[in-house]
Design goal:
Organism: Promicromonospora umidemergens
Number of domains: 1
Order of helices and strands: EEHHHHHH
Strand order of the largest sheet: 1-2
InterPro entries: DUF2231_TM (IPR019251)
Keywords: Membrane, Transmembrane, Transmembrane helix
Distance between the termini: 25 Å
Oligomer: single chain
Number of strands: 2
Shape: elongated
Protein name: DUF2231 domain-containing protein
Largest sheet: 2 strands, antiparallel
Length: about 170
Amino acid sequence: MESRAKAAGHAVHQQLIVFPLGLLATAVVFDVIGLLADDIRFASASYLMIAAGVLMGVVAAVFGLIDYLAIPRGTRARRVGILHGGGNVVVLVLFTLSWLVRAGTVGNVPDAAALILALAAVVLTVGTAWLGGELVDRLGVGVDDDAGLNASTKLTTGISIRRAQGAKP
């Protein structure tokens, strides 16, 4: 199933998810480093990364919803998609709550509740990311209908990936 929202020939959702995943995971790593090093700067950076990660997660979710709505009803992809998307909404809610709990603290140092919320969100993210991989890699959601190992690029005309790989035209 080809993605309904594309940029430069590829699904926008798949291009955007790297930002919230990277920001939110790194925020938790910075929390741990900050606690171990007793350095408030890591907590402040984590606070800002969570805000940016949640915002980018919402943007990525809009494009994920566009692709989800194009999946035919009654398919396994539709069932996996609702688990993937619903799970990621929970992830964003958990990180938002963690961010809000930190908002009133000096230097945005996470207390136990904020850290537990963020850690729970990261654990859930592992599962939702696997479901996203299942959608794309196994079920072909967001992949061009003419995809294949020797598919040519859609960015330019006249350049063939097949020729670069030694295949006959």
